[in-house]
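Record 1 of the preview.
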Amino acid sequence: MLKIAIMGAGRMGSLIRSTAETMRDAAGEAVFDVAFQVGRDLSDLDSAPAVDVLVDFSHASCLEAAVAYARRSGAALVCGTTGLTAAQMGSLRALGAHAAVLHSGNYSIGIAALRHLVGQAARELPGFDVEIVECHHNKKVDAPSGTAKLLLDTVLSEKNAASAATCAPTDAAVGGYRPVYGREGMCGARDEREVGVHALRGGTVAGVHTVSFFGTDEELSLTHRATSRQIFVDGALAATLKLAGREPGFYTFDEIMFA
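->
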C-alpha cells in the first residue's frame, strides 16, 4: 500500500482523496493509504508524518510549503498546480536533485495524445497559422490554462526548430515564433510568426482545448473535450503509483506514463 498525502482541499483535492480511498488492487486490497490532507492551514505540514508521495493540487501560493515538505521528508511530489511563475518552476526543478518530482498542467491521457498530434501537425504544416483556444468553468482563476501552455510550448518548439533549420543566418533578426494573448483594436494584419492563445470562461465547463491550423483554403482543428474532472484525478493517481520509488529527478508526464 502506498502512503500518500494530499495538498489542496478544493474540488480536485477532495475528488483525489475520495477516489484514492476507494481504489483496490486485483486482490481487493487498498492501493493507497491517505495519511493526511492539507487545506488552507499550511502550518499542518510542520508536524505532518512522512509519506511516500505528496500529491499537490492546491494553489500556486502553496508551492513553497509543498517543496519544503518534500525536501524535509524525502517524499516524492506529484504537482498539478497551474499558474506557476518561472521562479516557482525553477524551485520544482531544483527539488528534483533531492526527490522524484513530476509536474504537469494536465494529467489526462487524452491530452497527452493531443499534444503529440499537435506536434506532428506543427511539423507537417509549416506554412499554416496556429491558434489555440481553451474554455473552462467560471471559477478558474488562471488564464491561459496550464494545458493551453503545454500545447503552446509544443507548437513553439516545433515551429522554432523548423525555422532554425531552414532560415538563412541573415533571417535571425526576424525572431522566433511567439504567443499573442488575444487581440483588440487596430492590431494590424496577423504576423506569420505569432501563435494566438485565447481563454474562454463560463458555466461549469471542465475543460475544452482546440488547436487550429489555418492554411490557404483549408483548416485542421484538433480538440480535446473533458466532461468531468475525474479523468485528471485518474491520471494523477496512476502517475503517483509510477513515480513512487523513482530516483530523484524532474520528470514529465510522458516520461512517467509512457517511457
